[in-house]
Specification:
By secondary structure, this protein is of the alpha/beta class. Helix content is about 20%, strand content about 20%. The longest helix is centred in the last third of the chain and has 12 residues. The chain is globular. The protein starts with 12 loop residues before the first strand and ends in a 10-residue tail after the last helix. It binds fe (ii) ion.
């Protein structure tokens, strides 16, 4: 079934590490001129149910220690039901994989929006348990992964795809994954913003190459320009919120509704404590969550 996936649309730079010098097993090149760039898409089928589209299966999963959201998306109209996980956490990998098994999905990508400082990614653990899964992160993150994405890339699973938007500022390599802009893609669109934009907040900008100026520009140019009804699904929430919209955040976000100077002032005076997990999480997350060269 894996061979049914074929490359199209997505340009994904392949990792230059020894674990990734060949094309991933679930990808088949459509051109012989694809040394470092590929395009992928899978075949479509004809049945499914979902609240967002006839093809999308969507689950928002929560990890309570770090208040992290992990998102599961799958194209259930495709025969193999290809799925992606966005921002998995190491502590909840077994829960996530068991759900994926129960739903009869085929996990193909474990993706991160950025190198997290507050928890260890589940990506490496997932790869050790399901070897076909490919890890995905932005090239700008500097982290190890099977596939690197860059702004404008499309990550396909079945007939659905996520568009990659660069949203640096919380970290240098932050990206936002947005569901596709096409009539056969979920409506309204859904933006997985990582820590760039939180519900009524945003990620801190004082570590990991952060920059409040850059974050302000990222959110305004890459997220607030999306259709107003686009759902915002952040990587964290500490107040119990689960989802917002572009329109809501443009109206009510207490930081991003301000002008740039005021925003920079707010971010410079948060007086946040040193992240308790940063010294463990960042080194681990730079190598997929497991400090092993095999990953
Ligand atoms: Fe973060």
């Amino acid at each position: 079934m894996v061979q049914m996936l074929r490359l199209q649309f997505v340009r994904v730079s392949l990792l230059a590490s020894k674990s990734s010098t060949t094309l991933p097993l679930n990808l088949t090149p459509i051109s012989t001129q694809l040394p470092r760039t590929t395009r992928l898409r899978s075949q479509m089928a004809s049945y499914s149910t979902s609240s967002h589209s006839s093809k999308l299966l969507f689950r928002q999963l929560f990890e309570k220690e770090s208040s992290t959201y992990t998102y599961l998306l799958a194209d259930v109209s495709h025969p193999i039901k290809p799925a992606v996980l966005i921002d998995p956490v190491d502590r909840t990998v077994d829960r996530d994989l068991s759900l994926i098994h129960e739903l009869g999905l085929k996990l193909i990508y474990a993706m991160n929006t950025h190198v997290h400082a507050d928890h260890v990614t589940g990506t490496g653990l997932i790869k050790s348990k399901v070897p076909d899964v490919k890890s995905v992160i932005s090239k700008a993150s500097g982290a190890t992964a099977d596939l690197y994405v860059e702004p404008g890339d499309k990550v396909s699973f079945g007939d659905l795809f996520l568009e990659v938007r660069a949203t640096p500022g919380h970290t240098l390599g932050c990206v936002t994954y947005v569901t596709g802009d096409a009539s056969d893609q979920p409506q309204p669109r859904m933006a997985f913003t990582g820590d760039a934009l939180l519900i009524r907040g945003c990620g801190r900008t004082d570590f990991q190459g952060g920059s409040s100026e850059q974050l302000y520009k990222s959110v305004h140019s890459q997220i607030f320009t999306l259709p107003k009804d686009t759902f915002i699904y952040p990587a964290h929430d500490y107040k119990g919120f689960t989802v917002s919209t572009v329109e809501e955040e443009m109206k009510y976000n207490p930081r991003l509704t301000k002008n740039e100077e005021t925003f920079k002032n707010i971010m410079a005076n948060l007086n946040l404590s040193y992240p308790k997990m940063i010294d463990v999480a960042v080194p681990a997350n730079l190598v997929c969550g497991i400090q092993s060269k095999a990953i």
